[in-house]
Design brief:
The complex is a heterodimer of chains A (about 190) and B (about 35).
Chain A (H helix, E strand, L loop, with lengths): L2 H13 L5 H8 L1 H11 L5 E4 L8 E4 L6 H19 L1 H21 L25 H26 L3 H24 L1
Antiparallel strand pairs in A: 1-2
Helix pairs in contact in A: 1-2, 1-6, 1-7, 2-5, 4-5, 6-7
Chain B lengths: L1 H21 L11
The chains are: A mainly alpha (about 190), B mainly alpha (about 35).
Amino acid sequence: MFIGHFGLAAAVKAREPRVPLWSLMLATQFLDVVFVALYLAGGIESFKAVAPGTYGEALINAQYTHSLLGALLLSALYGGLSARRWGRRTGWLLGAMVFSHWLLDLLVHRADLPLLPGNAGGLPLLGLGLWQVPWATAVIEGVLLVVGAVLYFRSVRQRAPVTWRAMVSGGVMAALLVLGLVVDVLS
Amino acid sequence: MDFLIFLILFVVLCGWLDHWATRAAEPVAKEGR
């Protein structure tokens, strides 16, 4: 699940036009941003391919950022910082967007999502494993992509004072969503 | 690497394009007094 998160952000932007798009996009990927930081910081978190070169064939070792409690804490952090800048309501919304990443990952990940950071207590790992059916994962991401692109396009056309600018913004968004899904599926 | 590229494209490019597309038209300045 990669582009699906961005698709959700685009759809929410259509419903909440006052919230900056960049903050929604960053929120949906915030867990992975911290994951990359920990990966680069000496491999505290990591991933490995189960079957190299195919879509969704990865086993993720993200026992801090993608634990249930870790995701809730990172959501609270992002939401809290956002609330200071844009108000409490937007803070709650952006915090929820951060946590939506964990919920979507729960759907697709193999059982590699712990409840507590560092898998403390050795509790059962979570993950419904939809990645084991790559076409089904791609369909779900495709639906999120189409819904997000269409809702965003309609929204930006209503908000933009000049139609051609809305066409550019909506077109670039749709093109990037499609390109991202294609790159992810083919990589 | 793909992740970072797309993250920048979506956060920076799409964020800026949305702002650019929806900003209000600037008022026309009057000349003279």
